[in-house]
């Protein structure tokens, strides 16, 4: 599958989920922040991520792991390498240079307005705000290099 990168990012949180069976193929997935319902028959999750992009969310991965179903069996066929190859079997025609394009006068006379750039007021921040998963950098002395002393 060519979507393995996305799956690897989501699979890291799978082991932290609690799974409670509701029916044969319907499960309640419980994590620290919210409860979601995963239905394997309908191939849907109440977080709607699996419904929208048809790539497994971490809740569906946790249920698949609980049931012993492989991730590839639950994922959509759109993310398989064979489906990607099939999409480009016919070949892709090159686009001509813009000087050879036939553009109608109605489109040629339209003006495209650019987005207004919002400049933030005040001095920009020196440091980036770290996310919840990032560890803090320990400050150290520039002379001796020890972590507990700062010059």
From TrEMBL:
Pfam families named in the record: SWIM (PF04434)
Residue stretches making up the SWIM-type domain: 36-68
PROSITE patterns named among the record's database cross-references: ZF_SWIM (PS50966)
Keyword annotations: Metal-binding, Zinc, Zinc-finger
SMART domains assigned: ZnF_PMZ
Superkingdom per UniProt: Eukaryota
Matches recorded under InterPro entries: Znf_PMZ, Znf_SWIM
GO MF term set: zinc ion binding
Name of protein: SWIM-type domain-containing protein
Origin species: Dipteronia sinensis
């Amino acid at each position: 599958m060519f979507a393995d990168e996305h799956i690897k990012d989501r699979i890291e949180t799978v082991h932290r989920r609690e799974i409670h069976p509701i029916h044969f193929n319907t499960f309640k997935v419980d994590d620290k922040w919210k409860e979601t319902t995963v239905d394997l028959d309908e191939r849907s999750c109440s977080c709607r991520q699996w419904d929208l992009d048809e790539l497994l969310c971490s809740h569906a991965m946790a249920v698949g792991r609980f049931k012993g179903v492989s991730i590839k069996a639950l994922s959509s066929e759109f993310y398989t390498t064979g489906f990607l190859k099939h999409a480009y079997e016919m070949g892709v025609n090159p686009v001509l240079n813009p000087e050879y394009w036939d553009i109608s006068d109605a489109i040629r006379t339209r003006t495209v307005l650019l987005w207004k750039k919002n400049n933030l007021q005040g001095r920009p921040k020196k440091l980036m705000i770290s996310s919840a998963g990032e560890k803090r950098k320990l400050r150290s002395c520039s002379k001796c290099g020890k972590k507990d002393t700062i010059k």
